[in-house]
Amino acid sequence: MIKVGIVGATGYAGVELIRLLLAHPEVEVTRLTSRAEAGVRVDRLFPSLRGGIDLSFEDPANVHFEDCDVIFFATPHAVAMNTVPALIEQGKKVIDLSADFRLEDIASWETWYGVAHVAPSLVEQAVYGLPELNREAIRSAQLVACPGCYPTAVQLGFMPLLQAGVIDPLSLIASCASGTSGAGRSAKINLLLAEATESMKSYGVSGHRHLPEMEQGLSKMAGSDVKLTFVPHLAPMVRGIHATLFAKLTDASLDLRGIFQTCYQHEPFVVLTNGQYEPETRHVAGTNRCEIDVTQPAGDTVVITVAIDNLVKGASGQAIQAMNLMFGFEESLGLQNLAVMP
């Protein structure tokens, strides 16, 4: 049994962490922090958790996590980097769901996030937390930088073909749609029901902060520089990411589904639909699964479709998957739940 703390436990990723960890047989949730909600019982703010937890939120300024084995950061970007160094010095394991330790190029991170990075030395130490790519490194990591939601879907979709060297790495395209929860729990006019429902739009077309993370990971998979055109969209749904990926094949006669099967045959959370049905966000809602299909229309273009829950496989579930690896638990422990239907 391990003891867990969560910093920033009132956002969507934070409450999803609580929900999933309460069902984990090897975890005791002991510390939950929130500046704005300090002193408030968790189940008063989130009635959906009634009967599962009797803790109250604590002010992070008063919590030092001495009784925790691992601390999750579900905070906005540029927050964790101020606190994580002290926890690392204490020997604590840390799993950061923000972008603070994802990008190896510090200058690029500072450009995209608009602030100076105060813990660049930890970026070198952090392990990128995509288990399908870095499983063994995660096992021995002290600091894990969880991938973003879009980067999770895009990288898992392209990985088999890039590793096999059968697509042009300089002409990749990702057209992706996310539910409104991907923008966080803060009040924003464009996320009001009247604004977001019955409509779909692109955003960040001229540049999105997830792009350098995706190109960094995809380049490692390819063993060479990768160029990606990334267009995100806001879809009128709460949860989910659907990614439609395009690439040019270097050999149009390949068994593409065979390549994906070889790559993912032992992965507990990757489901290959093999043309039997199209990946849909509703198939994975509330789960840590990633559905993928690959199709080759006429010519040399390959199309990969991917569906994940942005709050689970794209955030909190993947973080728990990394935690399981770090502590020697069965990788799928606490993450076996099925999707909600409808």
From TrEMBL:
<comment type="function">
    <text>Catalyzes the NADPH-dependent reduction of N-acetyl-5-glutamyl phosphate to yield N-acetyl-L-glutamate 5-semialdehyde.</text>
</comment>
<dbReference type="InterPro" id="IPR000706">
    <property type="entry name" value="AGPR_type-1"/>
</dbReference>
<dbReference type="InterPro" id="IPR000534">
    <property type="entry name" value="Semialdehyde_DH_NAD-bd"/>
</dbReference>
<feature type="active site">
    <location>
        <position position="149"/>
    </location>
</feature>
<keyword id="KW-0055">Arginine biosynthesis</keyword>
<dbReference type="InterPro" id="IPR058924">
    <property type="entry name" value="AGPR_dimerisation_dom"/>
</dbReference>
<keyword id="KW-0560">Oxidoreductase</keyword>
<keyword id="KW-0521">NADP</keyword>
<dbReference type="InterPro" id="IPR050085">
    <property type="entry name" value="AGPR"/>
</dbReference>
<feature type="domain" description="Semialdehyde dehydrogenase NAD-binding">
    <location>
        <begin position="3"/>
        <end position="141"/>
    </location>
</feature>
<dbReference type="InterPro" id="IPR023013">
    <property type="entry name" value="AGPR_AS"/>
</dbReference>
<comment type="pathway">
    <text>Amino-acid biosynthesis; L-arginine biosynthesis; N(2)-acetyl-L-ornithine from L-glutamate: step 3/4.</text>
</comment>
<dbReference type="Pfam" id="PF22698">
    <property type="entry name" value="Semialdhyde_dhC_1"/>
</dbReference>
<protein>
    <recommendedName>
        <fullName>N-acetyl-gamma-glutamyl-phosphate reductase</fullName>
        <ecNumber>1.2.1.38</ecNumber>
    </recommendedName>
</protein>
<comment type="similarity">
    <text>Belongs to the NAGSA dehydrogenase family. Type 1 subfamily.</text>
</comment>
<dbReference type="GO" id="GO:0003942">
    <property type="term" value="F:N-acetyl-gamma-glutamyl-phosphate reductase activity"/>
</dbReference>
<dbReference type="Pfam" id="PF01118">
    <property type="entry name" value="Semialdhyde_dh"/>
</dbReference>
<keyword id="KW-0963">Cytoplasm</keyword>
<keyword id="KW-0028">Amino-acid biosynthesis</keyword>
<dbReference type="InterPro" id="IPR036291">
    <property type="entry name" value="NAD(P)-bd_dom_sf"/>
</dbReference>
